[in-house]
Amino acid sequence: MNRYVLKPREATILALLLAADREMTALEIGRDSGLCRNGNTRTWAELGSSLIRPLLIAGAAAKCGRKPLCFEITERGRIAIALFRVIANRKVRHDADA
Fold first, then answer.
1. Angle at Cα 91 formed by Cα 14 and Cα 58, nearest 5°?
2. Number of domains making up the chain
3. How large is the greatest C-alpha to C-alpha distance in the chain, in angstroms?
4. pLDDT tens, 14-37?
5. Using CA atoms, how far apart are residues 10 and 73, in angstroms rounded to an integer?
6. Stated pTM of the model
7. Which terminus has fewer CB within 10 Å in the chain: N or C?
8. Backbone angles phi, psi at 20, to 5 degrees
9. What three-state secondary structure class fits 92?
């Protein structure tokens, strides 16, 4: 089984994808990550593509019948996911109150 250690920013993107209720493009992932605030559509798309690449590889491996990658999320990654979930839940609750 292949192993890939998620870095904190990749763990945050993973949490973003899990919290999204729709499909997202690489451009949206790069822009929403907040890692390149003064970017343009090209830089956001490249950033989004590089952040999501490990997850796409895992999905491709699962689709072709190979065992999926085992993600080992570091402690910093777990913290990033937890913080993102708190932020995402607050945003959803705020929208529900409106």
1. 10
2. 1
3. 47
4. 666 666 666 777 788 778 777 677
5. 10
6. 0.44
7. C
8. -75, 145
9. helix
